[in-house]
Amino acid sequence: MLCVIGTLGGFAGGARSATLEGLLMPGPLHSEHAKQESDCTTCHDRANRARQATLCSACHKDVATDIRDKRGLHGKRPEIAQVQCNACHSEHLGRNGRITPAVAAAFDHSQTDFRIDGGHRNVGCAGCHAAGKKYREAPSGCADCHKKAEPHQGKLGTDCAACHETSRWSAVRYDHGKTRFALQARHAQIPCAACHSGNRWKDVPMACASCHTPDDVHRGSRGTACADCHTQSSWKDAKFDHEKVTGFALLGAHRTASCQSCHRTGRFEDKIPKDCSGCHAAIDSHAGRMGTKCESCHEASAWKDTHFVHERDAKFTLRGAHSKLACHNCHVARVTDRKPAKDCVACHRAIDVHAGSLGTKCESCHGLDAWKKDIRFDHDVTAFPLLGQHVAVPCAGCHTTKKFKDAPKECAGCHKADDVHKGNLGKDCARCHSPNAWTLWQFDHQKESGFALSGAHSRLQCNACHRRPAGEAKLGKDCASCHANDDVHLGQFGRRCDSCHSTISFKRARPQ
């Protein structure tokens, strides 16, 4: 007993409470609870040990409030309300003893009011929990940590999480559709500062011209309701119904042409011509000869694309060399003033060597591939078909001029120098001579004249009897017509010398 008292006396002499409870304490309290060492009843009720949690709550009111409101570390764990505080928190371990069971590396932050996710996972505890301060005193508002990085200068409040993601500060999930200006198409891709310059978030103008005045090629002449024509996908994409409003449909290449290509003054209210020549006169290779309705031949897809079919639309088929000519070779004047004739001389009169003497149907002789080479004239269809040696004679042999029709048709016209009859037998040489050769002739004297050439007559030259042109006087068929001078009877026996004489010899007489 003395030993015990001595021992107690040793405690009594110390700095601690001299009460029996103080003498029997298992160890000093944590430095935070050091003031309660003098009164154990602050934490312990000897009559009701179950009241210990209530006594803890009397001092730790903030924890009690969390449990009541079911928030914070203690409030989010429903089992805590059913256990004593010392189930987790140990005391009497000395001034620096560990009275909390939590280990920072294994602590589940999801059990608190601040869930760690996104970029916060990479931040150490000391990044938010300052040394010497309670963990619950760590700031939970975004602006508490990110004030320096916050570009809005506080003008949008402190609830950064309403717009920003925790994965990274630049990730924004703000629903602009809840405002009076929903972000669509390209607007959804531009940075906030493009419209909210200078951190202006309220009363931002919503008219297109407020941002796009520098892009307005109309220079304000079309007003500020840009959305009436332009789309949000691209400033250059327009939904303006050109055909409905102006009566001129933008087709083909017109669809991709800039407005200024036609509206050169920039004032769309200025009237401009709707015919092709209004814009394309400078590149009209026809120099206006084809009129102003270019669409009659040209496509809107490209100026060089044409749908004009000369055979169908002009009733004149372009064949041979014609198919390679430029339009203005034939269309030298405006088609609205005078359309070219469809006969050859309309274009080829200047090179017509016949000087029009052969008419206007040049195609009767000339081909379409070459004016001088492709000649197919058929002489047999004329009044003078080429027979015998005439076939081998070149055209110039008879046609001394390019008029051709002035060539003589009678034989003497070409063969006068060859006529041994000196014209005494007329001009119809073909009556005797063959076209196969001038020296070949086949005149049947008996058949043609009724006077057979027999005896000495067969050896005579034609002009021996036919001394005058055959057409002027016909010879008599009696002997005296030629032999009157040879008649020694002086006509006493009449003109029928053949009654006595034979054709073998005039001097001999047949015996009677």
Polypeptide structure, described:
The chain is mainly α and 512 residues long. Among the domains are: 1-101, no CATH class; 279-340, no CATH class; 348-400, no CATH class. It has helices at residues 2-12, 20-23, 52-59, 61-69, 72-75, 142-146, 208-212, 242-246, 253-256, 277-280, 310-314, 345-348, 395-398, 412-415, 445-449, 462-465, 480-483; strands spanning 433-434, 437-441. It has a two-stranded antiparallel sheet with strand order 1-2. A hairpin with a 2-residue loop joins β1 (433-434) and β2 (437-441). α3 (52-59) packs across α4 (61-69).
Rg, please?
Answer: 67 Å
**SSE series:** HHHHHHHHHHHHHHEEHHH
Helix/strand structural class: mainly alpha
* Residue runs with pLDDT of under 50 for 5 or more positions: 1-18
What fraction of residues sit in β-strands? under 5%
Cα distance, first to last residue? 227 Å
Q: Spatial order of the strands in the main sheet?
A: 1-2
The residue fraction in helices comes out at 10-25%
User: Shape from CA axes?
Assistant: rod-shaped
How large is the count of helical segments?
Answer: 17
Q: Major β-sheet, in short?
A: 2 strands, antiparallel
Kindly summarize this structure in a few lines:
This protein has 512 residues and is mostly helical. The protein has helices spanning 2-12, 20-23, 52-59, 61-69, 72-75, 142-146, 208-212, 242-246, 253-256, 277-280, 310-314, 345-348, 395-398, 412-415, 445-449, 462-465, 480-483; strands at 433-434, 437-441.
